[in-house]
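Supplementary notes for students who missed Thursday's class. We covered one full example, reproduced here. Read the sequence, then the structure, then the short commentary at the end.
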Amino acid sequence: MTNLNSTLSKLPSPATKRIALRVSAPAERALHQNHPWVFDQAITQQSHAGAPGDLAVIFDGNRRFLAIGLYDPTSFIRVRILQHRQPAVIDADWYQSKLIAANQIRNPLAQQSTDGYRIVHGENDGLPGLVIDRYAESLVIKIYSPIWIPHLKDLFLALAKTNPAERLILRLSRSLMKQKEFLHGLEDGMTLSGQPLEELILFRENGLTFECDPLRGQKTGFFLDQRENRVRVEKLSKGKSVLNVFAYTGGFSVYAARGGAKEIVSVDSSAPAMEAAIHNFSHNQNIPAVRSAIHETIAEDAFEVLTRMRSQKKMFDLVILDPPMFAQNQNQIAAGLSAYRKLARLGLDVLRAGGILVQASCSSRIDAETFFDTIHQTAREANRRLTEIERTAHALDHPIKFEEGAYLKCLFATVF
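Structure (token representation):
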């Protein structure tokens, strides 16, 4: 990575003086169990005020070192932990060691004709509040807290050594974009190093080619976390008619086509996403099964499309339901479960007897058992018999190291 953006070189450095903290007994126990967060209400003593990204050292009741992390006065997650138990100097070398460890977890992907994957999965890779995704020769770093801004220079140096690429693109969470006083000129979508993008990125996933818009696309441009579930769909698709609901840019649809699906219908409310799905089929015309598959796109509301298909008695052999997050906080859990029930019922109503239902959830607030129980209950209410094929969770490049980090779950089932 070259041509470092001048804005990055002018960012402030974290304060040299570390903040000393003591925390409540429950917080101490959580830190002993490697929990990555300290909440504001858990802090019982603090040496001095700090700015976002200042280093905070947490001591136990006997003044022994517990952890070191990044301080965030703007969040109820007041400290995001970088290291437990052993003191450390947090610099480019420390970040390099973390990136090397993350790369080792992902080494198997290099053998799978895949150059689109997550390099860093936030807290679960020891770098809380940020993700880094690779799309071929471009890296996209997305930060969710201002704590990372004083550390971006060191992180850049570590990335250049461990994950060389042609460019580094910055994405900011929606909440962070509003905190302009901490951004120091950084903007969502800016190129931190290398030449700015002039066209969409093409990358490989299990030998298939997909396009990615890292500047305007959802997440960092693609739903990398569903890669392994897409492979499962491919293996189940031969000779089937497939309905892919909330299809985004058609990832599941292209895999189904390569798996031998005779007909695929992709549904998403976003017309640009449906255009991208058409492009993704065109990028894989060298594969005979993709070339011969019939693919239809519908850019409309998913619930309305399913309701219409039910009234028209349109039926499919395989139905994929991969909606956005229905429950973003504790108050939305009941409404989220209701939406999953409604979606499951509509999906079952257009699924032939003996067909396969694939239903996913990315709502971390709804635990896996509750989600799976909800789908089973919905099937019973619809007088459908559901036989599970498989329950799946997170892909290799989206490891989970603490309970709150788990979000993805997916049910594969035959329905009679």
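Commentary. The mean pLDDT is 96. The chain has twelve helices and 20 strands. If anything here is unclear, bring it to office hours.
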